[in-house]
Write a structure and sequence with these properties.
By secondary structure, this protein is mainly α. The chain has 8 helices and no strands. The longest helix has 28 residues.
């Protein structure tokens, strides 16, 4: 029995929704911390310390903003947790920027190397730039997040900070970024320029902070 076009389209939309959820912008700092602790020279730190710092970072950069978003939604200040409406993004984005700044301070307080701290500063800078752009134009926060992850892996690689050859992880991250961009287009959340702009903003902010200040 041939598969109908409706079934195929439904499957593609399901995959796109899955990618958008799993690769949520709120999770990107957590993914970044995980990559640093398991792919860079910091993998030599005790396992328990790496896990505890990962969980604390996740609490600061993901759980707190999610709780804040839930409160905003409860008071009908945002329509949904994805904050798809451009005019509703200012307050949750600024709160997320503050959370990333707090995470950067936490890494500093925990005596992490400067380049690692600068990754989190780059994440904060990405959000600030998005807030400014968002005043006139909506760009993809998903792509800004994954762009920062690609930049992180690239900087660990080019600065010789990897615990292994990161060429393949870098290639995989680029492929994932492409898949996520396609998912945002399929779901019609953004046009191609908004997807591209998000990726460029995320990549440049993290690259600049890590390369010149790390």
């Amino acid at each position: 029995m041939p598969i109908s076009k409706f079934t195929i389209n439904k499957f593609i939309a399901g995959v796109a929704n899955f990618l958008s959820t799993v690769l949520s912008p709120l999770l990107m700092p957590t993914f970044g911390v995980f990559l640093v602790f398991w792919l860079s020279v910091l993998c030599l730190l005790p396992y328990g310390r790496r896990v505890s710092m990962l969980l604390v970072s996740m609490g600061i950069t993901c759980i707190l903003p999610l709780i804040f978003l839930s409160v905003l939604r409860h008071f009908k200040l945002v329509t949904d947790l994805h904050v798809e409406v451009r005019e509703q993004r200012m307050v949750p984005y600024l709160f997320a920027a503050v959370c990333n700044a707090a995470a950067a301070y936490y890494l500093y307080y925990s005596h992490m190397p400067r380049w690692f701290i600068m990754f989190m500063v780059g994440s904060m800078l990405t959000i600030i730039v998005m807030v400014i752009i968002n005043l006139r134009w909506k760009i993809s926060a998903h792509m800004a997040g994954i762009g920062g992850i690609v930049a992180l892996i690239n900087q660990i690689h080019v600065q010789g900070l990897g615990a292994l050859d990161l060429l393949w992880p870098l290639c995989i991250s680029i492929i994932i970024a492409g898949a996520l961009g396609s998912a945002r287009l399929i779901l019609k959340r953004h046009d191609s320029w908004q997807v591209l702009a998000g990726a460029v903003v995320g990549f440049l902010c993290v690259t600049i902070t890590m390369k010149f200040f790390g």
